[in-house]
Specification:
Layout lengths: L1 H21 L15 E2 L12 H12 L5 H4 L5 E8 L4 H12 L11 E7 L8 E2 L5 E4 L2 E4 L2 H7 L5 E2 L2 H5 L2 H4 L2 H8 L3 E7 L4 H14 L4 E6 L4 E2 L15 H15 L3 H11 L6 H14 L5 E10 H5 L5 E12 L1 H16 L20 E10 L4 E13 H14 L15 E8 L3 E2 L5 H7 L6 E6 L2 E5 L10 H11 L13 E5 L1 E5 L5 E2 L5
Parallel strand pairs: 1-5, 2-9, 3-8, 3-9, 4-7
Antiparallel strand pairs: 2-12, 4-8, 5-6, 10-12, 11-12, 13-14, 13-15, 15-20, 16-19, 17-18, 17-19, 20-21
Helix pairs in contact: 9-12, 10-11, 11-12, 14-15
Length: 522
């Protein structure tokens, strides 16, 4: 029995060893079975410098003549969500690329994930590639690939790994040293686009939008118009300078500024534009369109240049553009705007400027608003506002902040040493709606505590309570009676037949993210 047992044990051990040696490695298949392969640098030493020291020296040279004032004084609540940067050799596009990526300097340690969308130049394939490399390598070190995100993207039917397409592709690699320099540690989601259609780009953008968070950014790698016989594109014939080429680029940029991916798609197709990253731009615009409210986005052209200008010869010329799309988070920006306004009044900082919101419609359309100041104990310290949409929102907040701090007749003007002990809340009002009712009982039924702000009017007298007042006056009768007294009428005025009642709702934005938005306010 002992001999037989030992023989069987030997067989079992051999089978176990065979199983352990032939079984696949223990991988987390939720991240798509990474190969373990690092994508080595393919174009350092040709398209950009070969060593860390040379890269840092080149970046120092790009800094010259570039103002960073607007970067250094970026207001709270405004963050970049998409950058467009060129990918030609640094000799030609490095300065423009530097100006794009320098916008990320204040977000070092805060942006931790980069979706880098680029065109495939070397190897063609149908659809999109998101490779299964574990990292990309440059002379500045390795950038880890976000395997989980890459795997999720490869679940789309038109997205594959296509690893060979990445091995000698420059459009992703050439931008990584800038990202490493300005962001430090981050995870990369490399995406190459080859032969595709608009529906694929739409689907890709939608999936990316689902994977974005507040610590993510999309970087689109693209040069602009390739002009001349070398590129088979000469709609104007030979040119002596870059003005008409710039006109083509700016016409294309107008669709980016308008956040219009479909318009850009059709424009490029109809004009046969040679913007190499055109479909990467379209995908990026779709992604932010699905993720962010369009009226809170600010688009700006940062820098522009042409190889024809650099070489002094426009026989063949490539254009380079840097652009930034920012999301203005109103939950943080609006109370921040109010506090910066008070600080400026005390000489503690610069006055906020209207151009910091760009063309974002939300902040420029006329709106009613109130600004409320409270002490640390929750006591009212000032509240001034406009019920009617008289002023653009940005101006409304700024003026009513000064009113609440220094001109509320119920309180003495705010002092500098109080600034650190007050809490600021901004309330944005919907348009007034008359409330129809026939009896005081019907009025009570139609009022919605916690939702409705109310304006009472009788003759020339009127007054309002914001919805926040419901937190202290919870009974409808008490709310209306106190509002009557605020208007200088008897506390039972709401029961009289000649009283008019109007309602509105608010979005509340308090400091520290302490904001409440009515579910019914769109």
């Amino acid at each position: 029995m002992t001999v037989v047992f030992r023989q069987r044990l030997s067989v079992l051990l051999a089978l176990a060893l065979l199983f352990l040696c032939t079984m696949p490695p223990l991988l987390d298949y939720s991240v798509g079975s990474p190969t373990g392969e690092v994508r080595k640098s393919a174009v350092s030493g040709t398209w950009y410098p070969a060593t860390k020291q040379e890269i840092l020296k080149a970046i120092d040279a790009f800094k010259k003549g570039v103002s960073h004032d607007d970067v250094a004084h970026r207001p709270p609540g405004i963050r970049p969500i998409l950058l467009i940067a060129p990918h030609a050799g640094w000799r030609f596009s490095g300065k423009v690329a530097y100006e794009a990526f320098s916008r990320l300097a204040p977000f070092r340690g805060r942006i931790k994930k980069v979706f880098l969308i680029a065109p495939a130049h070397r190897v063609g394939f149908k659809g999109v590639s998101c490779p299964d490399f574990t990292a990309y390598e440059t002379p500045l070190g390795r950038v880890s690939v976000d395997q989980s995100i890459s795997y999720k993207l490869r679940q789309l039917p038109f997205v594959g790994a296509h690893r060979e397409a990445h091995k000698f592709e420059h459009s992703i690699e050439i931008e990584l040293p800038f990202l490493q320099y300005f962001l430090g540690d981050f995870r990369l989601v490399p995406i190459l686009i080859s032969w595709t259609d608009r529906e694929m780009l739409d689907s890709l953008g939608r999936r990316i939008s689902e994977l974005l968070d507040s610590r993510s950014i999309i970087v689109v790698s693209s040069d602009f118009t390739h002009y001349g016989p070398q590129y088979g594109y000469m709609p104007f014939g030979p040119v002596k300078d870059g003005r008409r080429i710039e006109g083509l680029d700016m016409e294309a940029f107008s669709f980016i500024k308008g956040l219009d991916p479909e318009g850009l798609w059709h424009y490029v197709k109809e004009r046969h534009m040679t913007i190499c990253g055109r479909w990467a731009i379209v995908a990026g615009l779709y992604a932010i369109g699905y993720k962010y409210p369009k009226d809170c986005l600010k688009v700006g052209l940062i820098a522009y240049d042409q190889s024809g200008r650099i070489l002094g010869d426009y026989t063949n010329s490539v254009s380079y553009a840097a652009a930034e799309i920012d999301f203005i988070d109103r939950t943080k920006y609006l109370p921040g705007l109010a506090r910066r306004t008070i600080r400026a009044a005390f000489g503690l900082g610069p006055w906020p400027r209207i151009d910091e919101v760009g063309d974002a419609p939300y902040f420029k359309r006329k709106s009613g608003c109130f600004v409320t100041l409270e002490t640390e104990e929750g006591a009212l310290r000032g509240c001034i506002g406009h019920i009617e949409p008289i002023l653009p929102l940005w101006q409304c907040v700024k003026e009513n902040t000064l009113g609440a701090a220094f001109r509320d007749p119920r309180f003495r003007p705010l002092k500098k040493d109080e600034l650190g002990a007050i809490h600021i809340e901004v309330s944005i009002l919907t348009p007034l709606r008359p409330l129809a009712f026939n009896t005081p009982e019907e009025l009570l039924r139609r009022i919605r505590p916690g939702v409705h702000g109310i304006v009472l009017k009788r003759g020339r007298r009127e007054a309002t309570f914001l919805p926040q007042v419901w937190e202290k006056l919870k009974r409808k009768e008490d709310f209306l009676s106190m509002l009557c007294m605020k208007a200088g009428m008897g506390q039972g005025c709401w029961r009289t037949p000649d009283v008019q009642v109007f309602t509105y709702e608010v979005k509340r934005y308090g400091e520290g993210g302490l904001g409440i938005e009515s579910e019914e306010v769109q």
